[in-house]
TrEMBL record:
Residues reported to bind a 1,2-diacyl-sn-glycero-3-phospho-(1'-sn-glycerol): R142
Keywords: Cell membrane, Lipoprotein, Membrane, Transferase, Transmembrane, Transmembrane helix
Recorded name of the encoding gene: lgt
Pathway: Protein modification; lipoprotein biosynthesis (diacylglyceryl transfer)
Primary location group: membrane
Membrane disposition: Multi-pass membrane protein
Superkingdom field: Bacteria
One Pfam family hit: LGT
Transmembrane segment boundaries: 20-39, 60-79, 99-116, 123-141, 190-208, 215-232, 252-273
Protein name as catalogued: Phosphatidylglycerol--prolipoprotein diacylglyceryl transferase
Entry similarity comment: Belongs to the Lgt family.
Amino acid sequence: MLIHPMPDPIALQLGPVAIHWYGLMYVLAFAMFIALGRVRIKQPHIAAQGWKKEDLDDMLFYGMLGVVIGGRMGEVLFYRPGYFFANPIEIFKVWHGGMSFHGGFLGVLIAMAVWARKSGRNLLDVYDFIAPLVPLGYAAGRLGNFINAELPGRVAGDQTLPWAMLWPDTNYPLWPNPVFLQGLRHPSPIYQLLIDGLLVFAILWLYARKERPRLAVGATYTLLYGCARFFTEYFRTPDWETTVLGMPITSGQVLSLPMVAGALAMLAWAYTVKQKGRAPISR
């Protein structure tokens, strides 16, 4: 039997300033965005489009705003509107965790649209460029969720599952006498780290190494994530759940279905519509 390690969510205390592991995971995500982006810029089909390191640094600033603002507002509006509207000050306490991927996804799309307009880039080329840089950052965020003991999994049907674990109830203090949720549970943040993050990254990075039709890479990421998230939701305790055609469907699955449908439409467009060439941008 495994027990959640319940690490201290504060990684470093500097007087009155507390540095949380959750925040450090975002720093790691942004660092990986830059590192992978510099590798991607050197790929021949990307270099031919005139991408530069300065573009990457500039996009990161806009992307950070999109992730943080969109992710938090997604959590507020999609998952816990009643709680946050009753406690509005909690909206700003992002170090407590609670960031919606779907909200962050929309936030980044908007931020990149603003950057594309500012820089004179084709918006679809921007989406194609950044898509392979996203999944590892997502994986880092899920590691932060695990450290914070957020997003508990469902009770494992097989209580002898080797990696099922006792999960702390964060409504109570974790020390010195933690209270645990009932039953051994799937470590769902780890599932999402591995499947929605690392597996999606590996597939997409290989796919994006060669030139693809405009929007195909961005659409492929959207499709892969939507499908992966729909699957891993079966192991996660849902924030809310409804019934469609007699079948239960979770909040994450409801939000992922439009991603899958939209991605399929975008892929059909990318591979069937005649597109103009992607000439290097002149500045």
